[in-house]
Amino acid sequence: MPKDSNVYVVVGEGVVTVKREGSNRAVLANVLGKAQVDGVEVLCLDRLVHESHEQQFGEWTLAGAVTTLLSRSLPPVTGAAA
């Protein structure tokens, strides 16, 4: 069983960078698409940035066998006009 390590996800303009603690290597992926549905944000990346045993990077949930789908809950909208 691999040791758990911290993984940092940085979302930029059209790109996502994934950096694992203890590694000097970062993985850069382009964002192919973005959707927000029912309070969940989903990013579709152009490559696989997670390993098969990984299910979570911090607040991001991972899915995908060929490319990675990152999803996370969005904070509730406050102060909306009625």
Task: Tell me what the structure shows.
With 82 residues, the protein is mainly beta. It has one domain. Helix content is 0%, strand content 49%. It contains no helices and seven strands. The protein has strands at residues 7-11, 15-20, 26-37, 40-45, 56-57, 60-63, 69-73. Strands 1-2-3-4-7-6-5 form a seven-stranded antiparallel sheet, with no helix packed on it. A hairpin with a 2-residue loop joins strand 5 (56-57) and strand 6. The radius of gyration is 14 Å and the shape is globular. The termini are far apart. The model has no long low-confidence stretch (mean pLDDT 90).
In short:
The protein has 82 residues and is an all-beta fold.
Please tag this protein with its features:
single chain; 82 residues; mainly beta; 7-stranded antiparallel β-sheet; globular
Number of strands: 7
Strand content: over 45%
**Number of individual domains:** 1
Which class do the helix and strand fractions yield? mainly beta
- List low-pLDDT spans: none
Characterize the main sheet: 7 strands, antiparallel
Shape: globular
**Overall pLDDT, averaged?**
90
Number of helices: 0
Radius of gyration: 14 Å
Distance between the termini: 51 Å
Write the layout of secondary structure elements.
Layout: E1 7-11, E2 15-20, E3 26-37, E4 40-45, E5 56-57, E6 60-63, E7 69-73
Antiparallel strand pairs: 1-2, 2-3, 3-4, 4-7, 5-6, 6-7
